[in-house]
Amino acid sequence: MSWARATVEQPAASRAPSQPHARRAFGVYAVLTGYAAIAVFPVLLIALNSLKDRAAIFGQPYLPPLPGTFSWVGYQTMFSRAHFERYFANSAIVTGTSMVLILLLGAMAAFALAEYRFRGNTWVGLYLALGIMIPIRLGTVSILRLMSSLGLVNTLFALILVYTAQGLPIAVFVLQQFMRQVPSDLKDAARIDGMSEYRIFGLVLPLVRPAVATVAVFTMIPIWNDLWFPLILAPGEATKTVTLGAQQFIGQFISDWNAILASLTLAAIPVLVVYAVFSRQLIRGLTAGAFK
């Protein structure tokens, strides 16, 4: 009977220490939920107001579009007065090409710095780290002169070059740390089997997939949302990006807020889709980096 009583009473005793943990977990989730609500609220507010008429935007900004206030005028104005599909395609080309170059070149440079020991290895890593600390916009005048001398002003190639140079330092810095965690025995076994260094690189790259996804998300968002370099290097109608195209609805005396909110809503969709697709890999990459 005493053994049975101990067996019955044991779960109650084991549940007691979990109550503070449950309260602590509830507090953490409450804080995270509140932070998520604060982050999502502006995006949701923009999307809801893009479906209202002008009077409702200023008169009832926090209410959803109702039958009396619902309107497609912002989207109609955006597609009639601007070549939004062209702007969207330009942003997709610039962002996609820049991301491919950043991830490919950054991963190859990170693999070389992490795998091979040569004179100046540390200095090369420090030189690349300076690109994270020094904003590329400080060299805008020199970049504009260089692109002008090369005849690349008002071309998408100029934006691709600038964004690739902007994203490479953080890509190399992050991927290098993860590639150093790949076991050397795996790479040595591949070399014994006669695999080339390029094939070994292809073997290592999937093992750092969370880090690649993290770099992709953190470098894609500044490129897609950038207004500075498209305004300076590619302000032509044929090379405008989504962010720059939305500025034409902002005037000195009057602004078409319906079209502005509609363009910003459509511009935010690709970023949200990419984050939703890579969210699991992004979280894995951030947590893996936190415990190294």
What features would you describe in this structure?
This protein folds into 2 domains: 2-49; 76-290, MetI-like (MetI-like fold), CATH 1.10.3720. It has helices at 2-15, 18-49, 54-59, 73-81, 84-115, 121-133, 140-149, 156-179, 184-192, 197-204, 209-225, 228-233, 242-246, 257-290. It is built from 14 helices and no strands. It is mostly helical. 75% of the residues lie in helices and 0% in strands.
- Please trace the helix and strand order, writing H or E for each element: HHHHHHHHHHHHHH
Which strand-content bin applies to the residues? under 5%
CATH architecture identity of the largest domain = Orthogonal Bundle
Q: Which term fits the overall shape?
A: globular
> What structural category arises from helix and sheet content?
mainly alpha
Number of strands: 0
Number of domains: 2
Mean pLDDT: 83
Radius of gyration computed on alpha carbons: 26 Å
List the quaternary state of the chains. single chain
* CATH class (first level) name of the largest domain: Mainly Alpha
Could you state the CATH homologous superfamily of the largest domain? Answer: MetI-like
The third-level CATH topology of the largest domain is MetI-like fold
SSE map:
Elements: H1 2-15, H2 18-49, H3 54-59, H4 73-81, H5 84-115, H6 121-133, H7 140-149, H8 156-179, H9 184-192, H10 197-204, H11 209-225, H12 228-233, H13 242-246, H14 257-290
Helix pairs in contact: 2-14, 4-14, 5-8, 5-11, 6-8, 8-11, 11-14
